[in-house]
Amino acid sequence: MSASPPAAGTLPRRLLAAEPGWTLQADVCVVGSGIAGLCAALHARAAGLSVIVVTKVNIDDGSTRWAQGGIAAVLDPADTPEAHLADTMVAGVGLCDEDAVRVLVTEGPARVRELIAFGAEFDRNPDGTLMLTREGGHHANRIIHAGGDATGAEVQRALHAAITRDPGIQLLEHALVLDLLCGEGGRAAGITLHVLGEGSEDGVGAVLARAVVLATGGMGQIYASTTNPSVSTGDGVALALRAGAVVTDVEFVQFHPTALYLGADRELGQQPLVSEAMRGEGAYLVDASGERFMVGQHELAELAPRDIVAKAITRVMNAQHVDHVYLDARHLGAEKLAERFPSILARCRQAGIDPVTEPIPVAPAAHYASGGVRTDLWGRTSVPGLYACGEVACTGVHGANRLASNSLLEGLVFAGRIGQDLARDLPPQADPVPPPAEASWVVSSSTREELTGAMTRGAGVIRGAISLAETAEVLAKLGTITSGDPRPVNWEVTNLHTVATALVAAARRRTETRGCHWREDFPHLDANWRGHLLAAISPRGEFTDDYEAMA
Ligand SMILES: Cc1cc2nc3c(=O)[nH]c(=O)nc-3n(C[C@H](O)[C@H](O)[C@H](O)COP(=O)(O)OP(=O)(O)OC[C@H]3O[C@@H](n4cnc5c(N)ncnc54)[C@H](O)[C@@H]3O)c2cc1C
């Protein structure tokens, strides 16, 4: 641990000062147990490799189990991969990698069938065909769902059961991964982690592996208001930055337009989502006087892409000085609401709101990170032996904005590709080189509320040079408030701080509005910005970014 406080603006190169007290070993270490991590584990096993899955709390604590709307894939004979590709590219506003999107939409249907073979059961029509619905930005019915609006829970259940059946997969729960271990030449050789366990694997240890797959999910917890669960603290992106990997597109955070508004005094943490599928079925947005405000703003009205809807809601809230608007679903009727949206209905009723008889109060909340650890088409990051898939990764399929229900699909497809890559090219275990003792410190968890508040105010739904500069100043100050107590809460806040710093730097630099990055002072798309900001941390702990124009 550093003896003196770090200079403002510098970031730690690693979290851990202590030597690992115990070691486990497998061919592949998968970090995270959502759709991406569990599929990567199953595919690594199919390649004949031994696997350890490490997960921060319980196996099903990530975003996956909360997914409601469904998974997008071309399964209707009337639909085509070209049409899915076109919708995805439009949502990504010029920044999608077309090759990656092509992989997503062409390999997606087979990966969905594979998920069904793993045991996931999706809603079906009376004739046994998969029920397909439509969501914002899609011009065809291509969203499969399970249990009405409980898609993620069913996917998580099925994948959990599948890995449990396989004795070649070891699961470590309550295991917070800290940093990457590297061998000579910089190849990934495993991870360090902290386990709250019993027996031999307790406290700080290491998992040695021939390859490491990051599948740590999103970073919504950098904001005060998010639909993401508490584990979504951007740990994978922060770890990758510390390991010298390239991270990209982090300024593109999608805000879900309609999180259930529970009142100003709600506890910090996850806000329940009122799925887009409800608007897909015909619910509409109204202001406090009951007026529909999306009509006339976009040809798809309430089904416009998420950024357009979230921005419109934020503008109405700002203009009317209120902290929510309403989603009116009363005309759908009690029967349809109960059949199609049982979870949302139950959650609203738990909060004292009955969608059958009253409009639902809603407000935007941080929902999805389009950017992340940069990968190629096989999930490989810029660090040899380090892979990434799912929300932590930036494969290039989302560009400046994700099309609804493409994220579960991305986890499925690229986890499968990682499995294929592991099968063909996996060098032997590298000996980890002890990392340098300096450049390790942790930010105090006492800074968390100030950090998330500053991010929401200055780098949230709508941003500007002044608000971003204020947030950057707060982050620089908070980064010097360190703790001598190496504990999960402090490690997590250090990760939040690193990711927030990268996001604010990119958001300041990108002087245009594109996709879900909305600059009030640069309200238009600028063709000169058709490219990616690549973030990294220098060996001195300074944040750096490079601009890479697209061809
Ligand atoms: C409310 C909600 C609804 C959504 N609805 C949809 C939808 O309908 N369709 C769709 O396509 N997408 C949807 N999404 C997005 C989608 O759910 C996520 O993008 C997707 O589930 C991410 O999967 P993942 O496997 O990458 O990450 P997650 O499922 O979030 O899993 C991440 C895992 O990493 C673990 N982890 C994190 N940090 C560490 C660490 N340091 N050490 C060890 N383990 C760690 C976590 O504990 C967790 O197990 C929704 C998201 C939310 C929040």
Describe the structure.
This protein is of the alpha/beta class and 551 residues long. Among the domains are: 260-363, Succinate dehydrogenase/fumarate reductase flavoprotein, catalytic domain (Flavocytochrome C3, Chain A, domain 1, Alpha-Beta Complex); 442-529, Methane Monooxygenase Hydroxylase, Chain G, domain 1 (Up-down Bundle). It is 31% helix and 19% strand. The protein is built from 13 helices and 22 strands. The strands form 6 sheets. Strands 1, 2, 5, 6, 7, 8 and 17 form a 7-stranded mixed β-sheet that branches. The chain is globular, with a radius of gyration of 22 Å. The structure holds flavin-adenine dinucleotide. Residues 31-37, 54-57, 61-64, 66-71, 151-152, 175-177, 215-218, 227-228, 231-232, 235, 273, 368, 390-392, 405, 407-408, 411 line the site of flavin-adenine dinucleotide.
Describe what is shown at a glance.
The protein is α/β, with parallel strands linked by helices. About 30% of the residues lie in helices and about 20% in strands.
Low-confidence stretches: none
Fraction of residues in β-strands: 15-25%
| CATH homology-level superfamily of the domain at 260-363 | Succinate dehydrogenase/fumarate reductase flavoprotein, catalytic domain
Overall structural class, as computed from helix and strand content, comes to alpha/beta
Work out the radius of gyration.
22 Å
For the record, give the distance between the C-alpha atoms at the N and C termini, rounded to a whole number: 44 Å
DSSP strand tally: 22
- Which ligands are bound? flavin-adenine dinucleotide
CATH fold field value of the domain at 260-363: Flavocytochrome C3, Chain A, domain 1
Q: Which architecture of the domain at 260-363 would the CATH scheme give at its second level?
A: Alpha-Beta Complex
Coarse shape: globular
Number of helices: 13
